[in-house]
Specification:
alpha+beta; Beta-Lactamase; Helix Hairpins; Heat Shock Protein 90; 3 domains; five-stranded mixed β-sheet; four-stranded antiparallel β-sheet; 12 strands; virulence; HAMP_dom; magnesium
């Protein structure tokens, strides 16, 4: 139940990321547009204020300067500045006059500052052209204007008279502040409106992604004939075409693999059945020869015993192949019976004469519903494997835990190499290929695992910290899926 929630959260996260990306683009676009608009509007507002103030000051100077005595006295300059103030009430400026780079008149009180900077005065007297400058005064923006007064006539010679004016830009600042607030108020609804196309765009992008995800899930579930409906020619459509090609190739390969697997299983089953009849005859003959081996000469007796041993190995291999074929065909069935688990294990050891080679801890009174024949196969394979490849002593222990039956087979050998451990239950897998002929068919552990799995249990292999390998059979006390006798 967890996997669908994870998929939904991934889809939801992608939708959210697409919506956020769309909103970010919209926000950046809106902010960039607002910033450019604000800059242009602010520039236009300030430029208009500057042009108006400079033109008004020039008009006042042109009107009043001809009546000014020359050279002007300090009182003449103060009267001239006062006249300029009277004419600039609309701009609310404070006017000053200066002759031959002298002090500004009227002079400001000692505890007050002026926006007319020395740099502005130097630019006016040095360049001889009107100059303006925006400065901060007492935390407020001000516009400072400097204008030289020249003689009329040829050459426009400088008279040495300069006029200055300072005026606050608080109104312009308020206008630009209003622009900022208007942009802020407009940004929120714009982003809210942008959310709708963002969600629609995300939905449009995610729709084929969801179809692709569902199709991939169908493929994973084994429905290899799943295909996507391809529309359009964008990247997602190309991805859908690639998916369809992959699914078609996978379906073809899977069909071929299943055909080859079925052929291989049928071949193994047919060969095993065909070998049973000649093997039965060979086994009967070798049994007779074994009985008379003592009367034969040593070389002939050794050959007879070798043939007998190899025939027995071949018979066991054929039986293993037939058992594996039954598992592959789904024909293996449990025949359950309620038995004493300890007695079942003990009989398996006694049937093979291992009771003196194995240290057994088999507490009585453990009742379990099992298939005794299949548990006998499991125990025989695990104990036989430990005796052949492990070190003495080999121990088998029976225990119960939380309604489960545990059978542990441990040895004191070198253990299982780490690179072998993941493959230990694979069919025909042998850790040492050089010893393949003497190590059996390579099917014993695979058959043991299949028998345990048939009971609804699990077979695990590990290495003990103190050395040696340990195989653990973990079974329910009441196996499911079989026929109880």
């Amino acid at each position: 139940m967890r996997r669908p929630r994870i998929r939904w959260s991934v889809a939801r996260g992608l939708r959210a990321r697409l919506a956020v990306a769309f909103l970010l683009v919209a926000a950046v676009s809106a902010l960039t547009t607002a910033a450019l608009t604000f800059q242009e509007a602010r520039k236009a507002i300030l430029q208009r204020s500057q042009d108006t103030a400079i033109n008004a000051l020039r008009s006042q100077v042109n009107s009043l300067a001809p009546d000014l005595p020359f050279p002007p006295s300090a009182s003449d300059l103060q009267h001239f500045a006062a006249q300029l103030d009277g004419g600039g009430q609309a701009q609310n400026w404070q006017a000053y006059a200066s002759f031959q780079n002298g002090p500004l008149l009227p002079q400001r009180p000692a505890n007050t500052s002026t926006a007319i900077t020395p740099e502005l005065r130097a630019a006016v007297t040095g360049k001889g052209v009107p100059v303006f400058q925006r400065v901060m005064k007492n935390g407020q923006p001000w516009l400072a204007i400097g204008m030289p007064v020249s003689y009329a006539g040829t050459g426009r010679a400088q008279s040495g008279l300069a006029v200055y004016a300072e005026l606050p830009l608080t109104a312009e600042q308020a206008n630009t502040g209003a622009l900022i607030k208007a942009a802020e108020r407009g940004a929120v609804p714009a982003l809210a409106l942008a959310l709708v196309p963002a969600l629609l765009a995300a939905q449009g992008v995610l729709r084929p992604v969801r179809r692709l995800r569902k199709a991939a899930g169908d493929i994973a579930a084994g429905r290899l004939d799943t295909r996507l409906d391809v529309r359009g020619g964008d990247e997602l459509a190309e991805l859908s075409r690639t998916f369809n090609h992959m699914a078609a190739t996978l379906e073809e390969n899977m069909i071929e693999l299943r055909r080859l697997e079925a052929t291989a299983r049928r071949f193994a089953s047919d060969v095993s059945h065909e070998l049973r009849t000649p093997l039965a005859a060979m086994t009967a003959v070798t049994d007779v020869l074994d009985e008379d081996a003592a009367t034969l000469d040593p070389d002939t007796a050794a050959a007879v015993r070798l043939v007998s041993e190899e025939t027995a190995k071949l018979a066991r291999m054929v039986e293993d192949l037939m058992e594996v074929s039954r598992f592959d065909a789904g024909a293996a069935a449990l025949h359950l019976d309620e038995v004493d688990a300890a007695e079942t294990v003990r009989k398996s050891l006694q049937a093979r004469g291992w009771q003196d080679q194995v240290e057994a801890q088999l507490p009585g009174g453990v009742r379990a519903v099992l298939d005794p024949r299949r548990i006998d196969v499991v125990v025989a394979n695990l104990v036989g494997n430990a005796l052949r490849h492990g070190g003495a002593p080999v121990r088998i222990r029976l225990a119960t835990r939380a309604g489960r039956l545990l059978i542990e087979v441990a040895d004191n050998g070198p253990g299982i190499p780490d690179e072998v451990l993941p493959h230990i239950f694979e069919r025909f897998y042998k850790a040492d290929a050089a010893r393949a002929r003497s190590e059996g068919s390579g099917l014993g552990l695979a058959i043991a695992e299949e028998n345990v799995r048939l009971h609804g249990g699990e077979l695990r292999a590990a290495n003990r910290p103190e050395g040696g390998a340990v195989f653990t059979v973990d079974l329910p006390l009441r196996a499911q899926g079989g026929e109880e006798q």
